[in-house]
User: Fold this.
Amino acid sequence: MLDPDGGTRIYSVHGELFFASSNDLVGQFDYAGDPDTVVIEMTHAHVWDASSVAALYAITTKYAARGKSVEIVELNQPSVRIHDTLAGQLGVGH
Assistant:
């Protein structure tokens, strides 16, 4: 979904993110076609493992390579703990 001014693409992620779903998630974004600002809204998602954190890192890296910024928002508290713990091991900072 584009925001009203058309400058931000908002993706809403739903469901459980774990090793079996992580690769599919990476393929759901339009890296080249999206505007310069992307928001990944995670209210209805849950991060379970390192592969999910790595997938989020891959997404942000693909956008960054195109000069675009990504913000991951609305992670639930257990997901934040997993993400922050594992992202530190991957050298990821969000």
Summary: The CA atoms of residues 50 and 89 lie 9 Å apart. The beta strands are 8-17, 37-47, 69-73. The chain has one domain: 8-90.
